[in-house]
Specification:
The protein is α+β, with helices and mostly antiparallel strands. It is 62% helix and 10% strand. Helix 1 (3-32) packs antiparallel against helix 5, helix 2 (41-52) runs antiparallel to helix 3 and helix 2 packs parallel to helix 7 (157-171). The protein is elongated. The mean pLDDT is 87.
Amino acid sequence: GSPRVKVFYFIKTFLFLAASSFLVAFSSYCLIAPNNFATGGVTGIAIIVEKATHGKVPQSVSIFCINAPLLILSFFCVKKKFAILSMLNVVMQTVWLTVMEHLNMPQLIFEEKIFAALAGGIGIGAAIAFAFKLGGSTGGMDIVAVMVQKKFPAPSIAWMIFILNCIVIATSFFVYKVDGDVTASVLPLIMAACEQYVESKVNDAITNGFHSAIEFRVITDKPEEMALTIISKLGRGVTSIPATGMYTRETHSMLVCVINRRQIATFRKILKDVDPDSFAVMSGVSQVLGLGFFSGED
């Protein structure tokens, strides 16, 4: 590409890396750790180690030491771009955490712990999504997942990450348990589970949400008129498929169309105006790639 494009790419990459690494550091240091619960992954391990050692081993040290061997392995097991971006993210996380620790950055302690879990989940979920969009990761379990998937492609990789995170969270019980108080001992586990749930939802919303759309399947006897109206008013392509009603044995047309969510109201009006007797099924689509929506490079 041109020098201008390359400069824009480097600026965008730096900003996303800075935002991603800062959100991980801020969420773990200022939100999760001070409210006495852990999260999954390497960040959770770092929080547990810091708590178990009464602060003698800060999060910055654990984050770097645990990620270092994983990053070295990733250079040999996955794409170099992924390894480099992940390494930069981890280094920047370490820098952010070190700065926060040396400046004694204020830690946000909430009376209602659930708010810390929600805020932490939003922060780390967004951080992971930003890292994925660049083609890298925030380190830790993400690196493990990519390396395992590279060697053993399987759709159940998400379950492996889920199980590993559950093991880390379960381990935190022994650090945060309060003798004689079952409720206080279990509360950190509940908060960690809430944080993980919010984290996954935010990650999914940022990664796939902006590329989501609605698919309509319309059974109609006015396919030409319906299709032309959709094309002219919504600017969306329409595919017609012959369809036979198995009860009436009558032949109709099934129109398939994918639209943006903001076009739903207009689409419904078109159905009502053009063919009130039409039958339509609407379903959510997690991602749409191609002409008129998003290219694979977005």
